[in-house]
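Human: I would love a firmer grasp of how sequence relates to backbone shape in proteins. Could you go through the record with me and say what the backbone is doing? Here is the record:
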Amino acid sequence: MRDLTIVIPIKDPPNLDRFITENSALLKSQAHKIIVDSGGGNKFQDARSLGFLPLLYEGRDISLWEARKFGYEYAVTPFTLNLDCDVVPPMAYIQEALTLLRTDKANAVSIHFEPIYTGHLEFGVSIWKTDILRKLYDYPPKQVEKLIKVGKQEWVTAFQCGFCECSYMWSRLLNSGGRLETLPYKAKHLK
């Protein structure tokens, strides 16, 4: 997995210990890791002591989409995995997605969460060709005037910007002539 960069935006994670434990094989893999911490990701500050290979750690108070965009700027590999800090993707999904991307059968590969919340594919656990992701990612599509707050989390709804991030990015990919592949795996959403 040396050709994969994992971008992990962290802001007030619901259970970072569980995220690290359940993703330990992925986090200890040879993939590059970019962690953008907007609060609550302090367990990653000394990531080498956790046994992780080299990573970039940046502590800044920014929104989820700004954290993703920041991470994409530092991706040094041909493929990028979006990994939200409350998700556990199956390793088989990652391996199969990388095979599809390496053989040029897709530009992005996604799966659903378990359980399926919204009935559409999830951007927060998708794997992309890095150059295409950098070119297309411009979320949110217009200025957001007000964020919805749920506890310490801040959310943008589809009503505020026209599309949720998932729908927006799939639409951007398909409208650009890109190919989206869906695999029959489900990522676990941590509560």
Summary: The chain has one domain: 4-189. The domain at 4-189 is CATH 3.90.550.10 (Spore Coat Polysaccharide Biosynthesis Protein SpsA; Chain A).
